[in-house]
Design goal:
single chain; alpha+beta; Triger factor/SurA peptide-binding fold; Chitinase A, domain 3; 2 domains; four-stranded antiparallel β-sheet; three-stranded antiparallel β-sheet; 11 helices; 56% helix; elongated; disordered N terminus
Length: 308
């Protein structure tokens, strides 16, 4: 849906601190020009490139190689749209007389400063990007205004009633089904070059366990029984808690398994998934409210996207 590409990406940009990118930014010489105007407010190519850089910095923490290039190309298509929406939201914030506390701005500036080794480095980064402390504060103020108008016009109106949560739960119970799980520990003897030696070693370990000797087990935690190797699943199903299997041979080697717990398959209770359902329903409602708001603002706006 449109909202997932617009509102969520806008919110993500709001929390991106511009100066976190400045110390590594390297745009080179950029010939600036106007890409679009929104009610007389300009969006420049340098602003567009700065946003692209912010996106790239975030994506590099998650993606690499061809996947990174693919994601960046996809994302670049929507960046101008994001900037246009932000101008629309900023205009609406001004009309609604949204105020930003100076302390909030100072907090963002101080956070940015803390990312540099010294104040000299901080101010040098500003100069390199053609910014001043005043223009940086203005940038932060605008981002906070947009965040506040979204809270006022969107989030505060996306109310979720208890009956909606209950209805969703009843209609989507299959989504909250949990398969059977077992909590196990194992001792694995890998076969290596000589299978007979591996088998004898594993038998010796099993005898020591049966004799009551403490051994070093590998804790595998809870695992879905459907994800276990068939050989392991069949033997574990016969165990009671704290019982140990005989040797189980698989391609990995010889296993000795101890069962430490079992969770039967079940549907999670409403009380367990209430918050999860709330977030789903809130996102859907906020989605529609946001899209309606942007559509309304666009119809009243004078938007000029310029070709180059």
């Amino acid at each position: 849906m449109l909202y997932k590409k617009t509102m969520k990406s806008t919110l993500r940009h709001l929390v991106v601190i511009l100066l976190l990118c400045l110390s590594t930014a390297a745009f080179g010489e950029v010939i600036d020009y106007i890409m679009a105007t929104v009610n007389g407010e300009v969006i420049t190519y340098s602003q567009f490139k700065q946003r692209i850089f912010e996106v790239e910095e975030a994506y590099r923490k998650v993606y690499s190689g061809e996947e990174l290039e693919k994601r960046l190309k996809e994302r670049e298509k929507s960046v101008l749209g994001d900037l246009i929406e932000e101008r629309l939201l900023l205009g609406e914030a001004k009309r609604e007389n949204i105020k930003v506390d100076k302390i909030e701005i100072e907090r963002m500036v101080n956070t940015a400063k803390s990312k540099f080794k010294s104040l000299d480095d901080f101010y040098s980064a500003l100069r390199n990007e053609g910014l001043t402390p005043e223009t940086l504060e203005k940038e932060y103020k605008q981002r906070l205004m947009i965040k506040k108008i979204i809270q006022f016009k969107v989030n505060s109106k996306a109310r979720i009633e208890e009956y909606e949560i209950s209805q969703y739960y009843q209609a989507h119970k299959k989504d909250f089904w949990e398969p059977e799980q077992v909590r196990i520990r194992q001792i694995l003897t890998k076969i290596g070059e000589d299978e007979k030696i591996a088998e004898q070693t594993a038998k010796g370990i099993l005898e020591r366990i049966k004799g009551g000797e403490d051994m070093e087990w590998e804790n595998l935690g809870f695992i879905n029984t459907s994800e276990l190797l068939p050989e392991l699943s069949a033997e574990i199903s016969k165990l009671k808690v704290n019982e140990v299997t005989d040797l189980i041979k698989t391609q990995a080697g010889y296993h000795i398994i101890r069962l430490e717990g079992r969770k039967l398959s079940k549907v999670r209770k409403l009380s367990e998934v209430r918050d999860e359902i709330y977030r789903i329903l809130f996102s859907r409602k906020a989605d529609k409210i946001y899209v309606d708001l942007i559509d309304k603002l666009k119809k009243k706006a004078d938007i000029d996207i310029r070709k180059r």
